Amino acid sequence: MKQKNLVYSWTGNTAACAVALGEQLKAEVELILEQKEREGSSGFATGGFSASIGLSSKLKEKPQTEGVDVLLIGMPVWAGTTPPAINAFFLSTDSADCRRFFVRVGGVGGLCL
Question: Total domain count for the chain?
């Protein structure tokens, strides 16, 4: 059974948690990357606003889910919902063939919460 840990992380905390989880589950980890990186307080504000109204962003490349049996999707919570990069992934893929689990995580100083 192939497992994949697909993750979007703005600051790296969620990615660190995804890597640790991937090691425990022996799952491949793939990062979702946006074409335009968000920076500073304006990136924080526009990201939160975009998330709150359900917008998606443009991804550098479409994450691969073919042949994956279990897909873990890791993300931070922005404005109480999914970030635009995750919205873009959902719009760009049909991963109906695999079981999906949504993992919303937080981290501080390298610790997964």
Answer: 1
